[in-house]
Amino acid sequence: MKKSIGAKTFALPSPVWVVGTYGEDDDPNIMTAAWGGICCSGPPCVTVSLQKPRATYENIMKRKAFTISIPSSHQVAEADYAGLVSGKDTNKFAMAGLTAVKSEMVDAPFVGEFPLILECRLVQTVDLGVHTQFIGEIIDVKADYDVLDEKGVPSLEKVSPFVFSASDREYYAIGEQIGQAFSIGMKFKN
């Protein structure tokens, strides 16, 4: 038996992403976002949903670009801070001791200290109500060398990202590997 708890944003978990944009006078800005994910594989695209009053919303609309900086678990305080104050009146990079790096691929900054970066060109917006969904084509992915595996791709274990739980408003580290994707379920296939 299951209990109905109503229409809530409890699709667990949500990624913790730090969205980078440029504001007025080319001021670099970041904000933490949890409403996002991969939305297309060809071309590779991500989606992130933001509220209209946010500085990042306006910045993306003007510049048609953004970055996604994915922090490691040991950077949880810095990532959380980026979602606590407004970029309209605060230099979040300076306050959190982070470095704004100008993307060579899109018109947006990324966080130099975070291990995995997605550089995105805005391709579409969808007004959903309180949030607007921004769909960005991934133009390039940058990763610190020390988070790459033997195949040269980012290792979840080495990146050590963390997730957000909307139901209890907590951050959680990602746990152990429990199975090989596209393989472990083969036991049910005829």
From TrEMBL:
Keywords: Flavoprotein
Annotated ranges, domain Flavin reductase like: 10-164
Cofactor: FMN
Lineage top rank: taxon: Bacteria
Family under the similarity heading: Belongs to the flavoredoxin family.
The name this protein goes by in its record: Flavin reductase family protein
